[in-house]
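In this section we walk through a basic example: taking a raw amino acid sequence and producing a predicted 3D structure, encoded as discrete structure tokens. The instruction is simple. Fold the sequence below.
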Amino acid sequence: MDAQSLEEMSISCRLSTLAEDAEGDTVTLDWILTQLHERAFGLFLLVLALPCCIPFLYGIPQIVALPLMFVSAQILLGRTSPWLPERLGAREVSKASLQSLADRAKPWLERIEALSRPRLQMLTRPPFDRIVGIALVLFSASILVPLPATNTVPGLAVVIVSMGFLQRDGILVLVGSVIGTLWIATLIFAGTTLATLVKGWLAL
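The resulting token sequence is shown next.
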């Protein structure tokens, strides 16, 4: 299938095609990146963030969290296409996991695609996308917090933002950014409260 046909394909179908095109039992993140063509930033963020939306899923979120943060930082720095260093790009994902992810995500992505349309497009383009890049770095960093279910909310935030980038929908970018920011604020509040309680107990 040529690059133009891939670009015209819906996002949900593109993910299914990506899984079908995988050769062997596993693929690397570098291989996934090379398949995404001109929509690389938005689609790569989406592929990396989707596993993080699954509650109590361990393993894959930890594999993709650092690459997700690295790619988010590149949006902040104004790169026009994503790149991964050799060590991160060599990380592997099984073809079965990729196919399962595409199947599970398809109905939800189709709903978002049906609701989205180009609006507030300035939020998906320079220089405003760099501000969003700062938020994405923070959301990605919070996925690394070693607590149960901490990957779900920030993963969802990144998925919504990436769909906003792909659909040129600034409303989705705003919604995802608000969800992720509220999550970060919750983590900070919980951490501060816990630290205060521990300090009080130690002072007794």
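Looking at the output, two observations stand out. The beta strands are 26-28, 92-94. The radius of gyration is 17 Å. In the next section we compare this with other chains.
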